[in-house]
Amino acid sequence: MGVRFKGWGTGVPERVVTNDELSQTLDTSDEWIRERTGIRERRIGGSAKSLGVEAAGKAIADAGVSLDSIDFLVLATTTPDRLTPATAPMIAAELGLSCPAMDVNAACSGFMYALRTAQGLLETGNRRILVIGSENLSRWVDWNDRNMAVLLADGAGACILDYDAEGSDILSFVLGTDGTAADLLTCEHGGFFEMDGKEVFRRAVRVVVDSAEEALERAGVTAQDISLVVPHQANVRIIQAAAQRLGIEMERCVVVLDRYGNTSSSSIPLALVDARDHGRIRPDEYALLTGFGAGMTWASAVVRWS
Ligand code: COA
């Protein structure tokens, strides 16, 4: 019994905000942002709903499936448009879906948690799930705070996940949480994102490496078997440090944060679609998806591309 990825889509705002543009109002520079984070520009605009609808519409078209065949919608978002109702039912309505729909919040690990949730739903009788990561982080950024303003951005990614009795594209899954680190990255009601960047950095590398190694072991493969690493896009130095510890060259890692910044729940599907569109993954090759985020949360999975 397993699950199959059927189609993918993304949605990003048209508005590009460059580092130079941020430098006009903040005490920062293109050089600092590029060197310390790897980010060159990001997309700003839209809402969790509008970006999610765009990504989902493309994923449904890419999969070539009908709306009435979708049994469930799982939306990963840290930035729902309203506290209640959840954003997922609004996306469903906009798409013309009336299936169950709910939000999952696991911060930047959100898409991975949503995938894991969808996998469980497929094991309990559902046959086709729409999984979306959609974020409107810019709404919760204090644009006078250079710490966060240079990092966070908006965007969405989505996929269709199908039940398959014969085999599975997802070979292993490792998820974890450490709530004692909750205060490292927060956004209070009515407030803005705040972060202890150095400590998040330190812990991020550790949880990515540990969870990735466990996911590889559970899948029965080694780091050398992995053709593509699709990491959460927070800071290229985190990706480099984790890749080095895993013994994986950067050529095998997808980096799109230079163009999109940190889009939280959306970053892994945005990176995966970019890699697919550039022919970087072929059928039967293994990919390692790995993310971390506020909570702290983390998740790694080994996938066989079909
Ligand atoms: N622009 C210009 N200078 C900045 C700056 C900015 N946006 N932010 C900090 N600085 C300055 C600091 O004041 C400091 O100056 P000093 O040396 O004169 O004291 C210097 O740059 C270095 O600051 P530091 O905080 O040590 O930078 P860093 O190398 O740790 O990078 C982060 C900061 C936030 C980019 C990095 O810690 C990080 O990416 N952390 C992880 C964040 C993350 O992944 N968050 C998402 C989790 S899902």
Explained architecture:
With 306 residues, the protein is of the alpha/beta class. It folds into two domains: 2-164, Peroxisomal Thiolase, Chain A, domain 1, CATH 3.40.47; 170-304, Thiolase/Chalcone synthase (Peroxisomal Thiolase, Chain A, domain 1). It has ten helices and 13 strands. The protein is globular. It binds coenzyme A. The site of coenzyme A (COA) has 20 residues, from α2, α6 and α7.
Shape: globular
Query: Which percent range fits the helix content?
Result: 25-40%
Output the CATH homologous superfamily of the largest domain.
Answer: Thiolase/Chalcone synthase
> Measured on Cα atoms, how large is the radius of gyration?
18 Å
Number of β-strand runs: 13
Number of domains: 2
Which class of secondary structure composition applies to the elements? alpha/beta
Major β-sheet profile = 5 strands, mixed
Mean pLDDT, nearest integer?
98
Give the secondary structure arrangement, pairings included.
Elements: E1 2-11, E2 16-18, H1 19-23, H2 30-37, E3 41-43, H3 48-63, E4 72-76, H4 87-95, E5 101-104, H5 110-123, E6 128-136, H6 146-149, E7 154-164, E8 170-177, E9 185-187, E10 193-195, H7 197-219, E11 226-231, H8 236-246, H9 257-260, H10 267-277, E12 286-293, E13 297-304
Parallel strand pairs: 4-5, 4-6, 11-12
Antiparallel strand pairs: 1-7, 2-3, 6-7, 8-13, 9-10, 12-13
This protein binds coenzyme A.
The site of coenzyme A has 20 residues, from helix 2, helix 6 and helix 7.
